[in-house]
Amino acid sequence: MSLAKEFSKGIVSDNPLFRLTLGMCPSLAITTSVANGIGMGAAFTAVLLASNIAISLLRKIIPDSIRIPCYIVIIASFVTITEMVMHAYAPALFKSLGIFIPLIVVNCIILGRAEAFASKNGVFASVLDALGMGVGYTLALVIVSTVREVLGAGTFYGIPLGGASAQSALIMILPPGGFIALGCILALLNKLQNKTR
Q1: pLDDT in tens, 2-39
Q2: According to a count of CB atoms within 10 Å of the terminal CB, is the N or C end of the chain lower?
Q3: Helix (H, G, I), strand (E, B) or coil at 156
Q4: Measuring CA to CA, how many Å separate 95 from each of 38, 40, 92?
Q5: Are 119 and 55 contacting, i.e. CB atoms less than 8 angstroms apart?
Q6: Among 139, 111, 133, which Cα is nearest to 8's?
Q7: Could you tell me the CA-to-CA distances from 147 to 15, 53, 66, 138, 171 in Å, in that order?
């Protein structure tokens, strides 16, 4: 097993949002600003990293018959810790992300990585897998949120672009804008991938 491949697969070939199209609900809901995208990506990565480590360490102890409920309890514990830390140290971000922080518990990416990877591999490989998937998911969120914030609000990370005369497309920060931005990005990525074949 190549360690570099384990890390890079989550960023490029198995990107959770752009290649596997998993975790769409929070991805489209919170990507109205780059700050939200970075915050959700950081929370997601922290939970994925901690849960992958715990599940990898406990993989030989957890009986097969109850492994999924055990994984959910482990993931829920780390989500609760992450939520409490965000509430204490980043209250504006916590308020902005709202219900989507607790929904990390049922995020199919995290449960999928627990089942497909952490439960079958050692701690170091599980850490690389979690970091790769976390970085890939965060980059995807930042790309989508950049498109939506720049086009919809005329800002980048809250900094105004183009002066007072700049026009913005309000639809891009509304729910349909998430689908439009993600669809255009996926189409562009597929076009680029077909050109390289």
Answers
A1: 777 777 888 878 888 888 777 788 788 888 889 999 99
A2: C
A3: strand
A4: 14, 12, 5
A5: yes
A6: 133
A7: 18, 34, 42, 14, 12
